[in-house]
Amino acid sequence: MSTSRTLRLLAAATAALALAAGCTRAGGSDAPVAQTQGPAPEVRLGYFPNVTHAPAIIGQKKDFYAKELGATKLAVTTFNAGPEEINALLGKSLDIGFIGSGPAINGFTKSEGTLQLISGAVSGGAQLVTKPEITSIDQLAGRNIATPSLGNTQDVALKKLVKDKGLQNVKITNMDNPKTFDAFRRGDVDGAWLPEPWSSRLVLDAGAKVLLDEKTLWPGGRFPTTVIIVRQEFLQQYPQTVQAILRGHINAIDWAKANEADAKKVVNDTLKELTGNALSQPVLDSSFKAIELTTDPISSTFPQLAQDSVTAGIVKSAVELKGFADLTALNTALQATGKPAVDAAGLDKK
């Protein structure tokens, strides 16, 4: 057995022991702790057919997950909205999900702490785009602006902006991204706060302009657009399988950064397969330029994101995020490949 193979096996064993030791009840939950088992027979993974879920697409299509999972079967389901994916996780028809930061927080709350953050996936890649004649934020007053769904990450961001600026009579319409594209071209909506590739599509294919890039609202221009969450019970039962998925996730991101043109093609081919439509090369290039593939969930932003949901009127009080993050599996996988650990910013504390 090679030295690298031996070290990898030792790392996996160490991770399994660490995860088993670290598995506790979720904050406020009295549910019994699940017993750690070996690799899961099957792991059910969810993601959206969006450029902002590129690591998931690449991980699946380039077999980075399959290579790490071994005999464990990978079953993939795609979703169009965060609440739909959260319901699948709560109903135990899904084990691990790539999802927006807003729905991740809502899922943690709704599950009473049993849906947990385990990794980042994508930072950036969300813009407020509008008709060209709208040249300032103040001119959103009296306009109809779309967001992907009620309470999703972009919906919260828009509602917070409207509240902070004291804008009057802004109509916010929730609709699927493809419907928003069509509605904008018909003139039924005046703009939209959207993730990639839809913001680039409205700009390049429908004549919109970028009024506000969400990067400008965050320190260093970094905010979590897509993260990975897991059912705590699955993490407790199958820590080896969760770590296998995260090793595949790391490998997918590394490969994408080293092979950008190929990564774009994999994502575009998959979007065509899943949605029936491929992106034009300019839209694809613009979308990838706007995002950063990263395992860092940028944990320090989540308290502000939780407070933003209050400001936006989505919830009455900010969520207590103690125990929201468990980055044990991620950090073990990162350290095994010589990468630095990711900071949970205190969100792992109960």
| Mean of pLDDT | 89
What spatial order of strands do you see in the largest sheet? 2-1-3-10-4-11
Looking at the structure, what is the overall shape?
A: globular
Number of helices: 14
Structural class of the helices, strands and pairings?
alpha/beta
Order of SSEs: HEHHEHEHEEEHEHEHEEHHHHEHH
Report the span from N to C terminus: 41 Å
Major sheet: size, sense and barrel closure? Answer: 6 strands, mixed
Q: Could you say what the CATH topology of the largest domain is called?
A: D-Maltodextrin-Binding Protein, domain 2
Main location: membrane
Pfam families: NMT1_2
Protein name: Aliphatic sulfonate ABC transporter substrate-binding protein
InterPro entries: ABC_SsuA_sub-bd (IPR010067), NrtA/CpmA_ABC-bd_dom (IPR044527)
